[in-house]
Amino acid sequence: MASDSDNFQVEPRPDSPTRKDVMAHVTVSINGRQYRMACEDGQESHLERLANELDRHVEQLRGSFGEIGDNRLLVMAALTISDELNEARQRMRRLETELAGLQEARVAAADRGQATQAAVAAALNAAAERIERVTKSLNQSIGATVVVG
């Protein structure tokens, strides 16, 4: 939990005063025990929500299995959360694949729409040219039969 890329850690390392300067502290309760945690400034409520979620998992497991030991409860809660995370990732991958397919279908439909629009425009232009030729031909034939004068 305590890597440099995390938003929080158990305690800042004493040899990194710059991290200590930007760290906020929060006391959370998990499994009836208080833990003083450090986190990036502004991340306090997020850390509290995570701790509350972990505590809820521990309480649910305790309700199901009884008193089986703190470490075992925490490991089981961590595995439960890891399983939920894994399922969420798999669902996200399926949704990303579905989204990519829908995007491809949208592009294909847009291409077909443009091709159809171009074909309709070409057909209308061809019809307009034919109408103009017929009109010109009619005007010439009407003009030849009219006697001026």
In short:
The protein is α+β, with helices and mostly antiparallel strands. It is about 70% helix and about 10% strand.
General description of the model:
There is one protein chain. The chain has a domain at 1-68. Helix content is 70%, strand content 12%. It has 3 helices and 3 strands. It has helices spanning 17-22, 44-65, 70-145; strands at residues 8-9, 23-30, 33-40. The protein has a 3-stranded antiparallel sheet with strand order 1-3-2. Strand 2 and strand 3 form a beta hairpin.
Give the ordered list of helices and strands.
EHEEHH
Mean pLDDT: 86
The tally of helices reads 3
**Helical residues, percent:** 55-70%
Widest sheet: strand ordering:
1-3-2
Low-confidence stretches: 1-6
Radius of gyration: 36 Å
Q: Structural class of the secondary elements? A: alpha+beta
Strand tally = 3
Q: What sort of overall outline do the alpha carbons produce when their principal axes are compared?
A: rod-shaped
Q: Determine the oligomeric state from the structure.
A: single chain
- Span of the ends, CA to CA: 106 Å
Taken as a percent bin, the fraction of beta residues is 5-15%
Largest sheet at a glance? Answer: 3 strands, antiparallel
